[in-house]
Structure formats: structure tokens, C-alpha cells
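Appendix C: a fully annotated inverse folding record. The material below is reproduced so that readers can follow the format used throughout the book. The structure is listed first as C-alpha cells, followed by the designed sequence.
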């Protein structure tokens, strides 16, 4: 489940949360004041036996000025603080610089690509306390990128790019979801944003950009061979091998990720074996067809994938 917008962890979401709280308090105060005045009037001016018809005043310039001026002042105040908040929250829609990461929505997973060539799926890392410009786009239908604690929502629209600031003020793992219905597995289009100190982030992003070590193939030769034979590489890329497919998640460092299938299963060697043979049993309707792999074959493929750290 995504974290709540009520526990914001970035300057942008803090501004939005305080704006919401401020307007809520103001609206509640007005409601209470009006409710009290109504109750008071009901009692004070109720019909009494033998009182006759009350006085019928018509028009009051003073009252009309007051009840026009007060709302006008309140609405103007709300307008000013809202515009200020929007300026702080929104990234420019045509930023004059390259993005710090490009996020692409797919049915039903998220890809993140960094300027150094690192590509990951379902797991985005960011350095703490640094405002990153994230470009949000889609490979197929409309998705919506949302990490409630860190940033505003941004639609991922085919053929266009949206931009948001992505920032966290404290280290931690923040949950994100797709917030626009996009087909069968919309509900399982989760991802995590891992905010870590700058040094740890650099280590991570540099490691993710490296092709797989030759030792992976050497330590799990049967699985590595099967991966190529069974044409897994038509959909998945493993940098440093002939696998270059781009329609499925990049698997270069798949074993370093915490989850598989956009959060539907923890990343264990058993689940890797299950995913390689019967993805439809785990996430029905997902774009990966079931594969005719024997028990020994799926174990071998999983053992190979497990080396891709
Ligand atoms: Cu992607 Cu909903």
C-alpha cells in the first residue's frame, strides 16, 4: 500500500499537506461559526405565543458589504497560497535541461532509466535531500505515476512527457502505485522508491549500469544457455549478453531487486523459478506467456537469474 499523503517526506508534498490542513482548518472554523449562529438564531428568534408578525427589514448595505468582503478576502488568500504552493510543487512542463531519470509506464510495470545507462524495473533509487527531475512517459496506455509521500501525481501519456520533482527528505523506502486504471493488472503496478545517502546511491546507480559479470554465466551455465535457447532475450535485456529485448523488464541486475512482478511476489529463487515458467499463475493477464519449462529447466533458469545481482 502506498504511504499516506498525510505523512509527507519531501518539500513538495509538505507544501501540499500544509495547504490542505490550512484550508481544512479554515473551512471547519467557518462551518462551526455558521452552525453556531444558525442554532442561536433558531432559539433566540423562535415564534412565541402572541408575539404577532416580526419586523420585516429590507436590504442592509453594511451587511451586504461585510458578507461580500469577508469571502472575497478568504478566497483571495487561498488563491495566493495555492499559486505559491503550485509553483513549489510543479516541475516545469518544458524543462530546459535533461531529466535525472526517465520513468516509463508499461502494462503492468514501471521502468526507470538513469543518464549513466542504468535501467531498472519496479525499484527506483534516489539520493536523499536532492531534487531530481523525473520525466514520466508511457510505452502503451495511460498510466499515472504516484508516490504519495514524495511527489504529486503525474500521468504517463503515450507520445508525451510529463515532468515532476522527485525528492525525499529522509532515507527510507517509499511505496508508489499506478493511479490510473490501465487494464487487467492495474492493481499490481506497484513500485518502490528507495531514498539513500548520496554515496550509497552512487554505488547503486554505477553498479546497475554495469553489464553482467562473466562469472554469472560460468556459475550457472545451464540456466544461461536456456535463457538464450528459449528466446527469453526477445523480450528481456541482460546487458553484456545477446539478450536485448525491450518489451519486458530489463533483467541485468534482477536479483538485486526486492520484488518481482511489480510487487506481487518477493524476489526469491523459488519465485524466480515460478515466474520463468508460469507467470500467468502469479499475475494473470500479464504480458509474459507461460513457458514450457521442465522442473529442472526452471530451476536452472532461476539459478542463473539469481546470479544477476
Ligand atoms: Cu498503470 Cu494503472
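Designed amino acids, in order:
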Amino acid at each position: 500500500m502506498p504511504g499516506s499523503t498525510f505523512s509527507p517526506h519531501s518539500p513538495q508534498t509538505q507544501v501540499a499537506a500544509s495547504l490542505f490542513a490550512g484550508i481544512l482548518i479554515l473551512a471547519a472554523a467557518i462551518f462551526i461559526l455558521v452552525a453556531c449562529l444558525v442554532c442561536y438564531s433558531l432559539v433566540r428568534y423562535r415564534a412565541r405565543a402572541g408575539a404577532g408578525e416580526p419586523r420585516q427589514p429590507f436590504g442592509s448595505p453594511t451587511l451586504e458589504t461585510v458578507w461580500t468582503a469577508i469571502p472575497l478576502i478568504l478566497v483571495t488568500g487561498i488563491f495566493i497560497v495555492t499559486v505559491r504552493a503550485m509553483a513549489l510543487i510543479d516541475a516545469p512542463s518544458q524543462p530546459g535541461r535533461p531529466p535525472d531519470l526517465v520513468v516509463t509506464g508499461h502494462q503492468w510495470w514501471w521502468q526507470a532509466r538513469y543518464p549513466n545507462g542504468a535501467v531498472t524495473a519496479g525499484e527506483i533509487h534516489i539520493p536523499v535531500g536532492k531534487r531530481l527531475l523525473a520525466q514520466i512517459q508511457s510505452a502503451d496506455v495511460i498510466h499515472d505515476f504516484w508516490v504519495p509521500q514524495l511527489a504529486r501525481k503525474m500521468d504517463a501519456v503515450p507520445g508525451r512527457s510529463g515532468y515532476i520533482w522527485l525528492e525525499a527528505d529522509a532515507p527510507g523506502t517509499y511505496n508508489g502505485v499506478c493511479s490510473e486504471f490501465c487494464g487487467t493488472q492495474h492493481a499490481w503496478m506497484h513500485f518502490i522508491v528507495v531514498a539513500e545517502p548520496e554515496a550509497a546511491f552512487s554505488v547503486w546507480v554505477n553498479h546497475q549500469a554495469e553489464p553482467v559479470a562473466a562469472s554469472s554465466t560460468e556459475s550457472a551455465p545451464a540456466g544461461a544457455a536456456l535463457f538464450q535457447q528459449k528466446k527469453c532475450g526477445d523480450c528481456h535485456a541482460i546487458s553484456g549478453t545477446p539478450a536485448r529485448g525491450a518489451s519486458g523488464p530489463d533483467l541485468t541486475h534482477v536479483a538485486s531487486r526486492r520484488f518481482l512482478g511489480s510487487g506481487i511476489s518477493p524476489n526469491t529463487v523459488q519465485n524466480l523459478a515460478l515466474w520463468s515458467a508460469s507467470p500467468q499463475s502469479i499475475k494473470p493477464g500479464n504480458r509474459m506467456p507461460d513457458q514450457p519449462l521442465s522442473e529442472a529447466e526452471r530451476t536452472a533458469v532461476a539459478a542463473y537469474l539469481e546470479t544477476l545481482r
